[in-house]
Amino acid sequence: MIFVTSYDSPDLDGIACAIAYSEFLNKEEKRAQAIYYGDLGLEVEFVKQYTKYFPVEKHTDGFPEDSQFVLVDAADPDELEKTIIPEKVIEVIDHHPLVFTETFIHAQKTIELVGSCATLITEKFQQEHFIPSKEAIIYLYSAIISNTVNFKNTITTQRDIDAATYLKSFLDIPDNYIEQMFSSKSKLTPKNLYHVIFQDFFAKPINGKRVGIGQIEIANLDETITKLWNELVVALERIRKEDRLDYIFLVGIDLNEGKTMFISIDEQSRLLFSHALEIPDLKNKHTIDFIMMRKQVWLKVDKILESQREF
Ligand SMILES: [Mn+2]
Questions:
Q1: Fewer CB within 10 Å, N side or C side of the chain?
Q2: How far is the CA of 268 from the centre of ligand 1 (A)?
Q3: Can you give the CATH number for the domain in which 236 is found?
């Protein structure tokens, strides 16, 4: 059996790719099953409800001896489930610049810097003249729209636009589908705030310091953050303690306006990110009028911390 999976607590891109690519392998008469581990975000829940289709098994225990693995939207061994043995990974498909693919010695690799991994999966279907199932098409289309923030994100390439246009030609979805999908993940409340941030939070050591960056993508960002500021500080403090972080930062993406808000809750982190982002007057709640995703922020933070400077 080939298990198709993404990183822990996958986003919509990871889930869409796992669903569609296991379908692709099945069409090639290979036995494949999409699986995930961890938790699912509000956006995955939205597409799941819309399609009433979710052929992805939650993985809980070990794998049979003869298992093989395909990784989609994931190529970093550190983010993988520990029971997946790197030597048994036969294929890696990802769209991220930071990869450690040498770990997967037996894997065929497709690493291309487009906006969404779903674009790469869509292209594989096109090359083989396979048409995905209606449900898989909805997942792939939604993933491209989500990852590229409806093509407003600077990571968007023409290939993403072409893949989404191709997928959309098979679809008959309501005009406000994208709006609904975006607002599905915008329902931040004092109660779910910690969970939503934690669901898409990533921490790592850089040069002896532990750095954590969360990312939230919502509509009405400014209004929501202003309203939930006190709860947000509590949630970030809790994550900082649990993860023993030296620096913590939150990247907020406004889905409707295509803006980014950088959030820091302590002076040390504010200073680090002020240097990294080259924004001298960085405020605790600082808005810029274009989209900068966490991945782009990490590159800047890596660079500044690796230069051994003290903050
Ligand atoms: Mn992705």
A1: N
A2: 30
A3: 3.10.310.20
